Amino acid sequence: MKKSTYTFPLIIAVIFIVNACTKEGKLNAPAGQIAATFTRGKINQPDLMALSGADSTKIVNWSVSPAGSDSLLTQHNIAKWFFKKAGTYTVSANQSGGATASIVITIIDSLYIPTPYATPFTAGEQITLVPKYIKSTISDSSFLSFTATTKNSYCGNSAIDLGVYYDTNAKAYYMQLTQVLHNADCGVTSSTLTRTVNYGSYQTSLANGSYPLYIEFNNQPNVVGSIEITDTQIIFHWANTGGVVIMPLTLSR
């Protein structure tokens, strides 16, 4: 069994969910019993639980039988369970000096697939784009790739919604940094996000010249720059404003 801790916002989310379920009559969890978001779920589906009426400043001891096919994250009277195999599990909880409460959880033989959600980038976000010149080892093609990294941190199951595409000008470079994607179960950790895309499916010759660069960030109008390509260099003419910074602005080729 693997253990870790919740972040404070997740504790609030758990309390809200448990309270909501109780109010809707889906779960009956008076003081001294365990409230859970479900008692019948799927493999790897997160089940959030709380020992109702427990002192939130003191640790609750959690256990499951049978053990060995579960992962647990805890914070005081809050627990988050993942079950890795189908079956019936009895989850128990007790706080020092109190009686042990138990709840039976049934996991069906079906894998939980989280639904992706999209949210805007958080306030003050600045994306750093690191360009790279790539020359094929098996053909005459060469192209650019970009690695995007956020300044702000996001929950552990997040990803940058990043893409490159064609538009009206076939010689231009178009890029979208639209939003942040994450699962319904956002995770209990946070970090900056990184994602790489390339123009290997088009713009594969890198012929000398100047090419428009259009970047849409956070669903705002395109910011326009250009890419100058010479025999020896690739130069990005970019103002480093509008939430997107390109570093470095010059590559050797």
Keywords:
4-stranded antiparallel beta sheet, 7-stranded mixed beta sheet, Immunoglobulin-like, 21 strands
Give a written overview of the molecule:
With 253 residues, this protein is mainly β. The protein folds into two domains: 8-112, Immunoglobulin-like (Sandwich), CATH 2.60.40.10; 118-252, no CATH class. It is 6% helix and 50% strand. It contains one helix and 21 strands. The strands form five sheets. Strands 9, 13, 14, 17, 18, 19 and 21 form a seven-stranded mixed beta sheet that branches. A hairpin with a 3-residue loop joins strand 18 and strand 19 (233-237). The longest helix has 16 residues, at 8-23. The radius of gyration is 25 Å and the shape is elongated. The chain starts with 7 loop residues before the first helix and ends with a strand. Residues 1-28 have low confidence and may be disordered.
